[in-house]
Amino acid sequence: MSGIFLRPTALAESFNQTLRSLRSLHSLCSLRSLRQLRLRQLDRVALAVATLFIVQAVLDAPSVAITASDLVHSLLSTAPYIVFAVLFIAYVKTSGATLLIARAMQGRTVQMIFVAAFFGGLAPLCSCEVVPLVAALLAAGAPLPAVMAFWLASPLVDPAGLALTLAALGPVFALAQTLAAVSLGLLGGFTLLALSRTRLTDNPLRQVTTTSCCDRSAPDPSPDPSTEATCTPDMNAPIVWRFWNDRGLRKSFRSELRGNGWFLLKWLTLAYTLKSLMESYLPAEWITSAVGGDGFAAIFLGALVGAPAYLSSYAAPALVSGLVEQGMAQGAALSFMVAGAIFSVPSALAVFALVRLRVGVFYLIAGFTGALLAGLAYSSFIALLS
Q1: Segment 241-269, tens digit of pLDDT
Q2: Following CA atoms 110, 205, 126, 345 in sequence, which dihedral angle do they give, to the nearest 10 degrees?
Q3: What separation in angstroms does the CA of 269 have from each of 62, 81, 226, 315?
Q4: Please, which residues bridge with residue 185 across strands?
């Protein structure tokens, strides 16, 4: 009988061991299910696109085919620019060429402001990716006016975004946006330099951790601005131009291709969908009456609307091209682009994560002022041409 029946203590131990095994199995299954759920869950941008099509199907089913046709046509016409953008970003980030920007910002403050504004307008970095680079510059003792010049110029344009702007809005607008980015950087940098002896620049930085934790071989396709401030790049890291000779960097390049390709595709899909819907349902006279003139009111309204309505630097050109086709003035379109980039949540969080409130407010004021000035200047230029 003793071989058949267990003692109470042994039974309890067996029960507890079984329970622990079941819990471990449940935790493992739950973890796997959670991972599968995260892999399968819809991206918020993709969900927004699907929602737009579902709503249109419910309210105006015959027009769904027109919207889908416009979307496919727009994506195909922009495909060469998308391919260039994805390959360029992946190469620059994998090789570590972005470190050239940090190494170039050396010398006198005035010289550094010019260099920072120029490189800020051409740096292939998104708003979140600017944070670790700026944190490293600040930790290395770079003057705040030069860093502010880079900060103001970097969200406006980069080579990949410039290619998409060229495709959507033409070469003149693309050149105007680039000049606006560099000019805004110069405006903010030299204004802050003039105020360098005021309380504005007195102990402007928050506590920044400078321990390097970035790894080019294992990039994060969607950095978090709240945590990226503590992840600064190694300024002495070598730039690997021929990265394909390194197995780890080849893997990193493929990861960058997938991440950036999906990022561009989803945002452009949303932008072109919104563009098609605007052209179908938004009366052109509404746009013309609100932001169709060349005066200050239209440019001010364009900047004011651009701040909350901005999507991303890659989706904005397609969206703005739809507004321009509906009657939005060129000057108002440029002020929309500039203000939207400066006031976008990632850009603003990147600033306020590293500097104190008063410097962050200066960034927003300088950005909005620059948007108005850029819109007025471009509007005057267009008037001269016509």
Answers
A1: 888 888 888 888 888 888 878 877 887 88
A2: -120
A3: 20, 14, 28, 8
A4: none
Q: Is residue 269 part of a domain?
A: yes
Confidence check: pLDDT of 370 > 60:
yes
What's the whole-number mean pLDDT along residues 7-16?
46
Question: Which range is least confidently modeled, 93-107, 226-240, 353-367?
Answer: 226-240
* Domain membership flag for residue 31: no
Task: Quick: pLDDT tens for 292-302.
Answer: 666 788 888 88
| Residue with tokens 């622990």, as numbered in its chain | 20
Instruction: Determine, yes or no, domain membership for 29.
Output: no
227 in a domain, yes or no? Answer: yes
**How many other CB atoms are there within 10 angstroms of residue 87's CB atom?**
16
CA contacts within 13 A on the Cβ side of 201: 16
How many domains is the chain built from? Answer: 1
The pTM is what?
A: 0.66
- Residue 128, domain extent: 44-385
pLDDT of residue 89: 74
Report how far residue 260's alpha carbon sits from residue 92's, in angstroms, rounded to the nearest whole number: 12
